[in-house]
Amino acid sequence: MTRALGLLSAGLLAVATACGGDIHDTHDTGDASQVVVDATGACNTLANSAETLSLPLVGQAPPAAQGGTIADGTYVMQSAAVYTGSGGASGATSTTTQVTIEVHAGTVQVVSTSGGTTTHLTVTIATSGTALTYTDTCPVSATLQGHYTASANALTVMLPSPSDAGAATLVEDFVRQ
Nearest 5 degrees, angle CA 106-CA 53-CA 153? Predict the structure, then answer.
């Protein structure tokens, strides 16, 4: 069984199963039977210039968030993993992901490709310390709480990713172009 969860990755949008299932880009409306994907590009026209990456499971705690200032610009994902906690599931999955984001004054345009589906999103972000509040504004409205680390040319986003085996954290690393 796979559960959907809207994620920023970012994308930053993934469905994780710690039992070895696939992870797919989706957008969760809060009802697993009503998943919304904007494959039309109506939310933005951002091109996905990131490389296609594997999305493994890591059986350890995620890295600690450090906060920082998120610089405006275009970022491409350079790595991603689902951290399942100490002793959790680990290993390769058949899932791939490709995400590009454009940050400008607290608004983030997202284009994400996984499983052959390209999704476009518009979100707003707000930060406080290491906390990140991510609010979808297109194609639907939803809010998610996570954490982040930012430097002049890098951004790491850590978002909750429930799985069949319990809570997990999706960690996505981006580099500014």
Answer: 40
Instruction: Calculate mean pLDDT across residues 67-87.
Output: 96
User: What's the rounded Cα separation, in Å, for the pair 87 and 60?
Assistant: 7
Phi-psi domain of 19 (left: phi exceeds 0; alpha: psi -120 through 50; beta: other): alpha
* pLDDT the model gives residue 65: 98
Fold of 53-176: Lipocalin (2.40.128)
Instruction: Map 49-115 to HEC letters.
Output: CCCCEECCEECCCCCCCCECCCCCEEEEEEEEEEECCCCCCCECCCCEEEEEEEEECCEEEEEEEEC
Please indicate whether residue 5 or residue 44 has the higher confidence score (pLDDT): 44
Q: What is the spatial distance between Cα 146 and Cα 7, in angstroms, rounded to a whole number?
A: 9
**Element (H or E) spanning 2, and its range?**
none
107 versus 28: the higher-pLDDT residue is 107
